[in-house]
Amino acid sequence: MVLYDELGPWYMLLDPTADHEAEATSYVEALRRHVDATSLLDLGAGAGNNAFFLRRHIPAVTLVDLSQAMLDLSRAVVPDAERVCADMRDVRLDRTFDAVLVHDAIDYMTTEADLRAAITTAFAHTRPGGAAIFVPDVFREDFEEETIHIEGADGARALRCIEWSWDPDPADTTVRTDYVVVLRDGRDTRVVHDRQTCGLFPRATWTRLLEDAGFEVGTFARPLDDGETTEQAFLCRRPG
Ligand SMILES: C[S@@+](CC[C@H](N)C(=O)[O-])C[C@H]1O[C@@H](n2cnc3c(N)ncnc32)[C@H](O)[C@@H]1O
User: Fold this and answer.
1) How many angstroms does the Cα of residue 65 sit away from the middle of ligand 1?
2) N or C: which end of the chain has fewer CB within 10 A?
3) Measured from the CB, is residue 26 less than 6 Å from ligand 1?
4) What's the pLDDT at 227?
5) What CATH number corresponds to the domain at position 31?
C-alpha cells in the first residue's frame, strides 16, 4: 500500500505516536480486567504507535505487520520489540501470549472469510486465560461518509492530507478510503494518491465470528482522537 510502503519516511508526520496515548491507555486498562499481561502480540502493528505506550506496562512485545517498511519505522518507536513481517490472516508463531491487540489494521479484512482468518490467528496466539482486543474503526451500522484533514511538519518537510471515506456499494462489506497527500520538502511539492479498500461489518457479524473462534466476547469504550467521543471496541477472553 502506498501509505505504508512508499510514504514510510513521511508516515510519522501523518500519524504521530503522541496521538495514541489516550486510546492505548484504554487498552491497558481493558486488558487488566482479564489478565496481568507480561507478553503482548500486536497484529498489524504498523509503526508501533500503540505498542509504544503498551510497552510501558507489558515487558515483552511482538509486532507483526505485512509491511517491512512499517516494521522498520517501528524500530525507533519500540526498539526492544520482536518484529515479524507476516500476514495476520495466516501467521503462526507457534506460541501464545498473555494479550493480543488487533488495532485498526483489522480494517483491511474486506471479506467475512478474511475477518474470520484474522480472528482465528488472534485466538491461536492468546493463551488460555489471556485476552485479545479488536479495534475496528467503524461498524456498518454507524458508517457515514466523512473527510478528515491532517497536517504535519518536521523542519523543512510538511504535508497536508485529506482522508475521504465513502461507500461505493452499501450492499457489500467494503468501503473506500482515498488519501490525497501533498508532500512539501523545502521548496518542492508532490502529490500522492492512495486508494484503499477497507472492510465494514455489522456488530452482529463481529460478535458471531469472535464467539465462533472460541472467545468470550465483551466490549469497552475507547476514546477517539477528538478527546470527547468514544467508539466501541471488543475485549475478548480466551477461556482458561
Ligand atoms: C494504520 S497502520 C497500523 C497502526 C498501528 N495499529 C499503530 O498502533 O500504530 C495499518 C497497518 O496494517 C498493516 N496491514 C494491512 N494488512 C495487513 C495484514 N493482512 N496483516 C498484517 N498487517 C497488515 C499495514 O501494513 C499497516 O502497517
Assistant:
1) 6
2) C
3) no
4) 74
5) 3.40.50.150
